[in-house]
Structures are given as C-alpha cells and as structure tokens.
Specification:
heterodimer, A: 109 residues, mainly alpha, 0% strand, B: 504 residues
C-alpha cells in the first residue's frame, strides 16, 4: 500500500504542476498571438526563421530509451522487486512533458 | 480472487459524457483564443512548441486499443509479448525524425505528406493512391479506437455497443469541430496527463490487491518460466516482426504525424518525436503488468469474452477494486480513445483542405474553405460511425489500409531521400506491391505478405528508376513551390455579423 500512497502523492503534485504548465504555455501562445497584433503573419515567416538545419537525424537519446526500456523489461523477468517501481516511470512521462513546457517558457523568457 | 462485477452502468455514461464536456470546454477556449483562419485550424500557424508537441504526440500514439493490447500481449506471451509490443511502438515514433527533418528543410511551408507527393511527382494516379491511403488510415484509426472504447465500456459497465458508439462519436466530433490542430494538441496534452498518472496508480493498486508483485512473479515462474523471459522466439514470429514493420508504416505513412511535423516550431521537430517515442514507453510497460497479473490470478480468456484485449478491463472490474481505481482506468482508456480520434480528425482536415478542396476549387473563398474543412469532420464521423454500428466485418478495410500504407512506406522514403526516383517508379512500386502482396497476406501468412509488400515496393521503384535514366529531381524547386492554401488561408475568418471580404 505504501507504493500506492507514494504514487498518489507524487501524482497529485505532478498533476498540479502539469496543469499549471499547460495553462502558462497556453497563455504564452495566446499573448504571442495578440502581439502579432491584428496582422496575420503568413506561415512563411515563421517557418523560414529556423528550418531546423542545426538538427542531425541521429539521437543517442533515442538509442538510450530503447536500451533502457528493453533492460527494464528484461530485469522485470529476473526479480519481482522491480515491478513496484515500474509504474512510477509512467508518472515520469508526465514529468517529461512538464520539462518540455519549461524549455518552451525558458526560451521565451 | 476474482469477484462479480457490481459497477453501475450510469457511471459509464457520466465518464464518457463528463470527459467530453471538459474537452469541449477546452476546445471552445482554444478556438476563441488561437484559431482565426484555416491556416490556424490545420497547421496552428506552425507555432506548436515542445510542450504541446511532446504531450500531443504521446497521446495521439497511445491508442485505446494499444492500452488494452499491452496487457493483452503480456497475457498471451508473457514478458516477450510486452517486449515486442512496446519496443517497436516507441521506435516507430522516433523513426519519424530523419524524414521529418529532411522534409521540413525541403518543404518548410508544407501541410500534408500527400502535398509533397503532388509537388515531387506531378503524377495524378500516384497522388490519388496516396490520398486514399491516408484517408483509409484515418478511418482505421477512428474505427479501431471506437472498437477499443466499446470493448472497455461494454466489459466494465455492460452498456450497449450502439449507445457507446453514438455517445463517443458525438462527443469527439463536437469538440474536434471547434478547434482543429490547436485543440487537438492542447486537449491531447491534457489527455497525456490523464493517461500516464492513472496508469501508475491503477497498476500499483492492482499489484497491492493481488498480494504484491512477488506472489504473481512466483506463480508465473511455476506456470512457465518462459513467461518471464523477453527472448521467446514464438512472440517475435507470432506477431512481433509483423507489428514492428506495420508500426513503421503507421507513423511515416500517416498524415496525423506529418501534420504535426509541419505544425511544430522547426527547431523542436526532432526533440518532439524523440521525446514522444521515448516517453511513450512507460505507458505500455506499466499497463503490461496488468496482463501479467491476469495470468497470475488464473483469469480464463473465455471469462473475458474470448478477446485478449478485454483482459485488462475484465480484471479491473472483477478484482473488487475501489470504484475510484476503476474510474481512473476507464478515464485512461477513454482519454487514449478521444485523443487519437481527435488527432485523426485534425489530420483529415488538412488533407481535405490541401489535397481535395483546394485543387478542385482553387479560387474558393477562405470562409468556404474553412466550412468545407470542418464539414469533413462531420462526414468522416458519420461514415466511421456507420461502419462500426452496421456491425459489418471491417477486416477488408483493415487489410486494404494496411496494404496501401505498407506499400507506401519505402517509395515514400525513396521519394524523400533519392533524387533519381521517378514518378512512374513510385506509382508502380506501390501498385505492384499491393496487387502481389495483399493476396499473399490474405491467403498465406501475415508476415510473408508483409515481406512481399516491402520487397516489391523497394525493388520495383529502384530498378525502374535506374533503367529509366530520367533527369534527377531538383529538390530545391520544392522550396519555392507555391503552397495551396497560403493565399487564402491566412485571411481571417469573419466573425458572425462581419462582412466577408469581397461581399461588402
């Protein structure tokens, strides 16, 4: 039961921060839209500004996530101890989205 | 350990409708603040940031059926089933990255992948096949998610199929109608929270209820130690390899993802898909444990109606869990269903506006283009609903869609990266692979059929292009290609009572 209680507490905190991040980001987008003013800037302006040429197509993060997921599943077959921790990584997905929002807001600041 | 299900059906109605009302409220707020014209509606002015990008990619890729299938594959094959279901799913999302980066450079103002095919080949039959493939794919996403939601609500609440379908189609259609891709991105991001957090709490409570993970682990070990291995070759041969190949086609040859590629800020495209794929992993891994618990407590497949996908909902409603845990599980699956259907509707609007309405009526006014785009959502919902409610076996739709999308994958990759690929090679690669591969898939074997489709769709375009010796395609012309909706779409949509430009 301790795991359930711990997960519930973490989930509540994460949910509040998550909703706050969504709201802050939504407000940011809305104010950007307003500052663009009455003008309706054509898409070409935004898309040519930075067309992502600094991005390579390979990412070690992708490789790590694949290896890590496979390792978690492999270890889940070795010991039951890990099973109680595995569900917590689902909350990690929500935290990742919060981090993504914070990167957005930090870049804006 | 299993107990009779005593959950009242009215809770099911409240959950389906309540979630819809919340999403409708969000959609209306988004619509009022962010959507001014067709351009906003179908491409979000290319301003979606990393947060909404990652949040929406995770939710759109988490299908209702996938939530239940992760438990189902774990129940059927043990950890090998979970491994082969989970790992290719994340890879499929991350595999978008090289194609997305390349096309965002080649066509910075793109809208749809089929629009790229039109510009690249100027070949009407090739374009028609691609558009059909995309639209069939969208229908399939909607139908499969509706089926998933029906399975869940029927298993837990015992509500009639036709009632569930009518409620869900109506709700998602209404809130999708109001916002386009902005609504889709923001509601899907909220959906991600409502998928990930309940997944953790529900799984942990299930483990607690059955006496802890150790009990299940030991039971499975006694039943068959192979259930706790990720290296069972039967799982790979049984569904894993076919699923992995099919999933690649489900992202790279799917407008739902391409719409996001062009709607997300260019500097966030790579990170969005890497994070989306990587942070999708925890969802099926966590929910897969429910399938292992079902195995451990000795749940019989016949009890769950003979469908492995129903194992998760059946277990959740027969373990005597507190009502709040059951509600969290139902919300989790409904959120997955709503977000995927909403994303599919949003992708449909971009296809309809850019690839159907604009080419047929190039001088259509912004007001009418916007109306036609939104009308397509209602038409699509009506057709999808009719297909599912009619009770017809839609296996042929699944097979045809799968064949077209699989056959599109390699020619599409070649079109993006290989300048020597000719339009006829592209077209015949797709046509011949469908003609030869589909019968093989139906008559012989799913895996062999898939490999035939992949083989022909790779060999024919390459050999044809090498023999043809046509002048290589100059990708730089795409940079200057006039986009179909640039002229009209950025004009504001008139508010009620305002005169439309040209009418005043």
């Amino acid at each position: 039961m301790a795991y359930v209680i711990a997960a519930t507490i973490i989930a509540l905190v994460v949910s509040v921060v998550y909703v706050g991040s969504v709201w802050a980001s939504f407000r940011q987008v809305r104010s950007d839209k307003k500052t663009e003013g009455e003008g309706h800037a054509p898409a070409a302006q935004s898309s040519h500004a930075d067309n992502g040429q600094n991005e390579s197509s390979f990412s070690w993060k992708a490789l790590i996530s694949i290896v890590l997921s496979s390792t978690i599943l492999y270890l889940a077959g070795k010991s039951a101890a890990l099973w109680h921790y595995i569900p917590f990584i689902a909350i990690g997905s929500a935290i990742a989205v919060i981090v993504a929002f914070s990167i957005d807001l930090r870049k804006k600041a | 350990m299993l107990q009779p299900n005593t959950i009242e059906p009215y809770i099911g109605y409240v959950l389906m409708a309540g979630l819809g009302v919340v999403m409708l409220f969000v959609a209306l707020a988004v619509r009022r603040s962010l959507v001014r014209n067709t351009h906003d509606f179908i491409i979000a002015d290319r301003k979606i940031g990393l947060g909404f990008g990652v949040g929406s990619v995770i939710a759109v890729w988490t299908w209702a059926m996938a939530v239940m299938m992760s438990s189902a594959q774990a129940y059927t094959w043990g950890l090998s089933g979970l491994f082969w279901f989970t790992v290719p799913n994340g890879i499929a999302v991350m595999a978008m990255v090289p194609f997305a980066i390349k096309l965002r450079k080649l066509v910075p103002n793109g809208y749809t992948i089929t629009d790229f095919i039109r510009s690249r080949f100027q070949n009407r039959p090739a374009l028609v096949i691609a558009v059909i493939g995309m639209i069939f794919g969208i229908f399939l996403e909607i139908i499969i998610n509706l089926k998933g939601a029906v399975l869940l609500v029927q298993t837990i609440f015992g509500i009639k199929e036709i009632v569930i379908l009518a409620i869900i189609i109506f709700i998602v259609t209404v809130y999708s109608y109001f916002g386009g891709i902005w609504t889709s991105a923001i509601t899907a991001t909220i959906n991600t929270l409502l998928i990930t957090v309940p997944a953790a709490i529900v799984t942990l409570y299930v483990l607690y209820k059955v006496g802890g993970a150790g009990v299940i682990f030991e039971t499975l070990k006694q039943q068959d130690p192979a259930l706790l291995s990720i290296f069972r070759p039967e799982a790979a041969a049984g569904f894993g390899i076919t699923l992995a190949l099919g999933l690649l086609a489900s992202t790279v040859a799917d407008q739902t993802f391409w719409q996001k590629v062009w709607a997300i800020r260019p500097n966030h495209v790579k990170r969005t898909f890497i994070w989306g794929g990587a942070w999708f992993y925890p969802i099926p891994i966590a929910l897969g444990l429910i399938g292992l618990v079902a195995l451990g407590v000795g749940l019989k497949l016949e009890d769950a109606g003979g469908d492995a996908a129903a194992v998760g909902p059946y277990l959740i409603s027969h373990l005597g869990l507190p009502l709040i845990i059951v509600i969290l599980y139902v919300l989790l699956v409904l959120n997955a269903c709503y977000s995927t259907i909403d994303g599919a509707f949003s992708a449909l609007t971009s296809l309809v506006a850019v690839d159907i309405v604009k080419p047929l009526w190039p001088h259509i006014s912004e007001k009418r283009l916007f109306a036609a785009t939104k009308l397509s959502i209602i038409v699509c919902a009506a057709i999808a609903g009719a297909i599912v409610m009619s009770g017809v076996n839609f296996v042929s739709l699944v097979l045809t869609t799968y064949a077209i999308k699989t056959s599109l994958l390699i020619p599409l990759i070649l079109a993006i990266f290989w300048k020597r690929l000719t339009s006829k090679a592209f077209l015949w690669g797709i046509v011949l692979s469908i003609v030869a591969g589909l019968p093989v898939r139906i008559i012989y074997d799913e895996l062999i059929g898939t490999l035939v489709i992949f083989g022909i769709s790779a060999v024919v375009p390459v050999v044809w292009s090498l023999i043809a010796k046509e002048k290589p395609f100059d990708y730089s012309v795409l940079l200057h290609t006039k986009q179909l909706v640039d002229t009209a779409a950025v004009e504001p949509v008139p508010r009620a009572g305002q005169p439309v430009r040209g009418e005043a």
